[in-house]
Amino acid sequence: MNLQPLEIAGAIHGPHLLILAGVHGDEYEPIAAVRRLAETIDSRQLRGTVTLVPIANHPAFASRSRTGSDHLDLARTFPGFRHGKPTEQIAFAINELIEEADFLIDLHTGGLTMEISPLVGYMLVSDAATLEAQRQMAAAFGLPIVWGTSARLEGRSLSAARDANVPAIYAEWGGGGGCNPDGVAAYIQGCKQVMGALKMIADLPAAADVDRYVIEDDRDASGHLQINYPAPIAGYYEASAALDAMIVPGDELGRIYDPQTLDPTPICATQRGRLITRRVLPAVDVGDCLAVILEDPADKGSFDE
Ligand SMILES: [Zn+2]
């Protein structure tokens, strides 16, 4: 398995940053952003090395889907196997890149089916220096939501980074098909701001002012973006709650309409928090994720409803 990463070696010795795009094959803003980074990072002005993987999961990209034809989710397959199924081989190859790196950024979106509020996340790892480095990378990336989640999640690139003690963040921005230029720009800016914080580049583009919403939640279920609010029936889903809305239990998130009778089945929230993910592809099967609500473990019901 050869991922054909692009390596930009700076004129001055410094940290080694690995940036991944296309871990999921239907997430296009990261792929465009990494290509643009490859075109614009000037090795003469660079301290350290940047390794770029523009499309980590070629089989999934070719399938226009989250996964390739073996249907394994690459983001649940780390550290992979050298002689395993295609997705396991990709995970193994990326794991080797992670072990060689000093820092990792893994870029995602909601893919064809979901849209996700711009957020940057990391694992609440036990190593204090690594955790602090991740907090600083996440703050530097500059997206509105910063989400520290359970370090016990397995199979992710961040799990591989945790095991290699490599400070790592991931990011999410939008989704729903196509490639939003605002998302591409946010990812280019975010990666460059992290490179600036790591003192790898000097002349930074001006940072946008963002209202920061920081949640650190060490509960086991925290950090899952794919298993919440599973559709109880198949049908046509129409989301009603807006992304970033503050939700309380009982709020209607959307409705599944029976494709024949058009009878609606309301999907209601059971949690309090910020709606950070919602399904945008209307056709749903039983079990498809419809929404993710970001709970604040410190929240005792104080925000204005
Ligand atoms: Zn993804």
Briefly characterize the structure.
The protein has 305 residues and is of the alpha/beta class. The chain has helices at 28-40, 58-62, 86-100, 128-141, 157-163, 181-197, and strands spanning 6-9, 12-20, 47-53, 103-108, 114-123, 145-149, 168-174, 213-216, 235-239, 246-247, 252-257, 264-268, 273-279, 283-284, 291-294. It folds into 2 domains: 6-216, Zn peptidases (Aminopeptidase), CATH 3.40.630.10; 235-294, OB fold (Dihydrolipoamide Acetyltransferase, E2P) (Beta Barrel), CATH 2.40.50.100.
Structure, described:
The protein has helices at 28-40, 58-62, 86-100, 128-141, 157-163, 181-197, and strands at 6-9, 12-20, 47-53, 103-108, 114-123, 145-149, 168-174, 213-216, 235-239, 246-247, 252-257, 264-268, 273-279, 283-284, 291-294. It has 305 residues and is an alpha/beta fold. It has 2 domains: 6-216, Zn peptidases (Aminopeptidase, 3-Layer(aba) Sandwich), CATH 3.40.630; 235-294, RNA polymerase II/Efflux pump adaptor protein, barrel-sandwich hybrid domain (OB fold (Dihydrolipoamide Acetyltransferase, E2P)), CATH 2.40.50.100. The strands form 2 sheets. Strands 1, 2, 3, 4, 5, 6, 7, 8, 10, 13 and 15 form an 11-stranded mixed sheet that branches. A 4-stranded antiparallel sheet has the order 12-11-9-14, with no helix packed on it. Strand 5, helix 4 and strand 6 form a beta-alpha-beta unit. Helix 1 (28-40) crosses helix 6 (181-197). The longest helix is centred in the middle third of the chain and has 17 residues, at 181-197. The chain is globular, with a radius of gyration of 19 Å. The mean pLDDT is 94. The site of zinc ion has 4 residues, from loops.
